[in-house]
Write a structure and sequence with these properties.
- The chain has 99 residues and is an alpha+beta fold.
- It has helices at residues 16-30, 45-53, 81-90; strands at 35-40, 57-62, 73-79.
- The protein has a 3-stranded antiparallel sheet.
- The longest helix is centred in the first third of the chain and has 15 residues, at 16-30.
- It is globular, with a radius of gyration of 14 Å.
- The relative contact order is 0.20.
Amino acid sequence: QVIDVAVHPQKRGRGLGYYLLTKIIEESISLGIRNIWLEVRPSNHAASRLYAKCEFIEVGRRPGYYRDTSEDAIVMSLSLLSKERSRSLSGPGGAEGHG
């Protein structure tokens, strides 16, 4: 489960969050992890776009999850089984791009 992915506000918009998340995905595949789970606030559009870009899908909601705002949490998941197959077919570097 991913708890936090954070980039300093002055460094945002440079692809660092995407880079960090793809490294988490690659390391998870190498460790034999099958799924990655996370929660995101509906109001966090930048994070939601990042997770969608990395192929996470919404699988549920946790009503009133965030105590400070009573916002729901969107529960997202990424299956690594198909990514592992793609990586093994494309060789040591895998099919993942960084950009």
